[in-house]
């Protein structure tokens, strides 16, 4: 009888391990989805930080445009190509590389 009891216990343990494996296989896609969602959340948080920094720079530029006449002149000259009366603008073009 002792051998049969050992066989029963081994079969019970193997059955429990098999059931645990089946349950784990059902949860594997959920765990992978959770990892994917966390990675996406991290990427979105980084994007939010970049956008917040860009917004901060735009607000700083807006404040300078409203208050600093030298900054307005600099923007008009560099970005828009404006010049004061009597000034000549020179634009140098790089030679194209073959």
Keywords:
about 100 residues; mainly alpha
Task: Describe, in short, the structure shown.
The protein is mainly alpha-helical and 98 residues long.
Can you describe what's shown?
- There is one protein chain.
- By secondary structure, this protein is mostly helical.
- The protein has a domain at 11-78.
- Helix content is 78%, strand content 0%.
- The radius of gyration is 35 Å and the shape is rod-shaped.
User: Segments where pLDDT lies below 50 for 5+ residues?
Assistant: none
Considering DSSP H and I runs of 4 or more, what fraction of the residues is helical?
over 70%
| Structural class computed from helices and strand pairing | mainly alpha
Please state the average pLDDT score: 89
Radius of gyration: 35 Å
Distance between the termini: 92 Å
Number of beta-strand segments: 0
Beta content: under 5%
- Sheet with the most strands, sense and barrel status: none
- By DSSP (H or I, 4+ residues per run), the number of helices equals 2
Outline type: rod-shaped
Following the backbone from N to C, one meets helices and strands in this order, namely HH
């Amino acid at each position: 009888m002792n051998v049969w009891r050992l066989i029963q216990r081994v079969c019970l343990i193997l059955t429990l391990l098999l059931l645990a494996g089946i349950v784990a296989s059902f949860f594997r896609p959920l765990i992978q989805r959770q990892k994917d969602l966390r990675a996406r959340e991290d990427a979105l948080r980084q994007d939010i930080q970049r956008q917040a920094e860009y917004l901060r720079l735009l607000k700083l530029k807006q404040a300078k445009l409203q208050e600093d006449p030298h900054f307005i002149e600099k923007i008009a000259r560099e970005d828009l190509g404006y010049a004061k009366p009597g000034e000549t603008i020179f634009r140098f073009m790089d030679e194209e590389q073959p």
